[in-house]
Design goal:
single chain, about 200 residues, alpha+beta, Nucleotidyltransferase, domain 5, 3 domains, four-stranded mixed sheet
Length: about 200
Amino acid sequence: MSAQARLEQAHYAIGRGVSQRRACTLMQVARSGLYYERKIPSRDLPVIDVMRRLSGQYPRFGSRRIRVFLAREGLQIGKERCSRLWSQAGLQVPAKKKRRRAIASAAPRPKMPDQRNTVWSYDFVYDACANGQTIKCLTVVDEYTRECLAIDVAGSIRSKRVIDVLSKLISVRGAPKYLRSDNGPEFVATKLLEWAVQEKRNY
């Protein structure tokens, strides 16, 4: 039995009327331990509170991606600690439901654009060559003008390539107020979130 567990048992015995000296002797713990306040839980509480708030805003994100948002709010923590606190708080990504339902979110949603360069949306389009090889096309569209700002074609497009395409496009046309995607697996990659946070842009 751990020292912490023995202390808890000693507290229980004292609550039942056993003297402190007797309870500590029986549980083989120092009396000073009865007054010791653990520092780690009190240090973790603010982080867990922010985790719960972010989990409410982004219910489909797990600890890996929430860690990026923690960093944006000035809470730099390691992967293992983030995973431990996430589990300790009882947070998890809810199971996908068969029927698609709108999920309420506190995250601000961009309004419909009223001029060019306000909202860009980006997505993948799949096609195939004559020999049957599947190709990916990354498309970026200005939602106001419906102009296709960029098309990047390759057999495989990773998050780094998406970031490169968006960065080059922004350097030419300037940054939009919002970047919008279908929130699929390609667009919730940790690297993309980190890039968006670093650039301090809405997405």
